[in-house]
Amino acid sequence: MNVKNIRWISKDASEAIVTVVDNKNFSLNCFSQPCEYYINDKIDCLYTFNVDNIKKSNIKQFVIEKNNDDLGYYLVGKIMNLKQKIIKVNDFKLELDNEIPSDIKEKEFIEFTCSRIDLY
User: Fold this and answer.
1) What is the DSSP string of the chain?
2) pLDDT band (50, 70, 90) for residue 69
3) pTM given for the model
């Protein structure tokens, strides 16, 4: 994952919308504050904010769909580390900010919504 674009909300507050792309050229718009990134910087992990409706998915492929606003998403991903709440969506690595239901196991696909994705 790496930074493709930075759109400043406020340079004084160091707030920006950062577009992160994976190796397959999929992209996610992320909120970053303080934003200390530059174009082409490598990103290790992204962080979800306000995750809701986590459930097992019958869809066994990665899905990225924007919600109606600029930063919200519906995602389908694969659990890579249940204890650390790490999922993979395409080549994106995301850490969930909410508990994963106990009936879901590692390597299973889940779907959920989030209000935004953060880049620290």
Assistant:
1) -EEEEEEEEETTTTEEEEEEE-TTS-EEEEEESS----TT-B---EEEES-EEEEE-S--S-EEEE-SSSS-EEEEEEEEETTTTEEEETTEEEE-SSPPPTT--TT-EEEEEESEEE--
2) confident
3) 0.93
